[in-house]
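Folding Problem: From Residues to Backbone Shape
Fields: amino acid sequence; protein backbone structure tokens
RECORD BEGINS BELOW THIS LINE
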Amino acid sequence: MLGVVGKTKNDSFYQQSFKGCQAYAVKYKNVRCIYDGGMDFQNIRAQVSVVKKLVKQGIDGLLIATTDSHFLVKEVLASLKEENIPVITFDSDLLPEHAEYRLAYVGTDNFAFGQALGKYVKNNFVLRAEQSICIQSGHPTTPNLNERIAGIRFALSQQKANKMKGKQGWREHPSCPMFSLGKRDLALEQLESVLNFRVPPIFIAVAGFAQFNENYMAVIEPYKKQIDSGELIVVSADTEPMQLQALAQGLSSINIGQKPFEMGKLGASLLIDYITKQQLPDKSHYYLGFHHCTPETATTCTTNY
């Protein structure tokens, strides 16, 4: 039995990864995948509790997207290593100093993904007078999101350690980055507040956040003409079905998406190879690609499961 744990449970991204696990597990009559996660937002304690519950249920391996590497290792992954329950991280890896607690990482190269977000902004939009950048993230300790922020900063200012302060013309708004903790109502409130700044910044979300809110289209519809004209710019990671629907209606400027289904499928294969044959993964990182979706290509740019 393989456990699949996302940062949040009610998230179509992680649900697609679960489906990928299931798609691979059907090859084996004695293997099944079970899915869980924190219910509503990126809660580090809820994630640990979920993993402990799955261990009690008898999982043989764990596929997990890290919310807080230090807390996850200290509270549960160290004991999983002692019990020889193998772990594959997906979407969000452990920090490098914790690599011994997982067999491999499967997912996006998150620094490169952040660079792709930044490069798209740099190559396709022109800063107006006094305009800045506003990055929206989830939990402030989440490794993959911090890597994406670093990638954006490097693409725009050739440095990744600090907030952009004008190098090469790019700077971050004093109120940003904004951390939504993955709370969809808060994320949407943050986005709408940015759109109403005196000089609205270019908004870059490093995951779906506001666009995963079922009220996103209704709330953002009044800004459609400004988004169409480029007066307002909304850039978002991920290309889940509800995001592509909003994009097709002109309620997002660009979405750059990942391959969650493939993450689950490949992660399951690595776990099963280890559990059944004691075969270690060939490498530490298995990077999957990403894709660009625009309002014009929203119906054809990717496949969701």
Notes: The domain at 2-109+259-289 is CATH 3.40.50.2300 (Rossmann fold). Residues 61 and 86 are 5 Å apart (CA to CA).
